[in-house]
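User: Lipoprotein, Actinocatenispora thailandica:
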Amino acid sequence: MVGSPKVRAVVLSLALTAGLTGCSSGHGTPGPGPGEGSQARSSSTAKGRADFSQRDMVVTARCSTGDSGGTVVTVDGWNPQSLTKKAHAEFRLPDTVLTKVDGVRPGTALEDLCAPTNLTDNDDILAVRSLFDRDFTKLAVVIQDPESKATHVGYVDRSGKLTDLTGQEDFGTTPHEDNAAMAPDGSAVWFTKEVDDKNYVARRALAGDHKVADQQSVEFVGERHVFVVGTPDTAVLGNSARLSPDGRRLLTEGGLLDLSDHRRFIGPDAIEQAPPLYCDKKTRSGGAIGWIDNDTVLCTSGFSGQRFSTLDLTPDAKLSAPILPSNDHKNFVLGISPDGQRFAFLSVKETERHYFVSDLKPGSTPKKIEPSGEFANMLDALFFLDWR
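Assistant: Predicted structure for Lipoprotein:
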């Protein structure tokens, strides 16, 4: 998934009315609502509808209020050509899960999904994607006690069960653990923590005693998010990131980083030292917004009338001719097909929004896909996560 602006996410914040006293380390608690609700939904869901390992699907997420109250994060997989549903999963969030924050900390990428500030701005798509494991069976969360303001990290599974990985704190040491992100294989949650005004990035394994491991000191977290890539997992503290298909290169904050199998953490210092990647090398301008293949990126060409171009990363390569015809719309990339041949984008003109699929060759004519059924009803509430 690349350069993928958020179409819309429902603005919703949770009332944090329950404490953390019932959430001890290694023990899960069920989500709110009638006990039979989640079971009925699970039993009525066809096995294939829960399978996100299928190929050639666009994956979206949305945040909404459930039938019996509370917040539900829904993940759906769609056929990119017909926009019919291929896969589906739901995560019912207990009231103590943080979805909106008032300051810099505590932080959670769930805010980008549940309480966005800009309907077409999702530069932190990789941080939102890192809330989930590879096949969307677990959702990493930050849990807040409304009285002590302690924050823990954990995860919610599809049944609505909450597992608190931080567990009970000792006297005098109120935990401040934020920015939870799930390893792609679902084995650990990475997070930021603040102790005595010092900041760290660390992880807690889902198995065993969940003790803090791989702790790294960082000077400042601010509004950065944690996202996790690769196997073994590498945690990155940064913004605006896009990962190459082979997982070996990372575009982040305008720079290009090579990833190493032996590196478990990449922090702001390494990102700042990364060589900048300019799509127009002569004017040192133009941003790369995603990957077409392991050696080719998709580039912007201005905000209004966005036509997009491609750039090979080999030395002396030149920017391609524009992909889309001349237009006066605002166009936002939603995803690039796994074979690197097509891309989906949202085209906005005043109050009109249309979904297109186009080849990635210069001079292509995009095809408008008319959504129907469920997709049409949810178009204004979808966050595009992936095209797999």
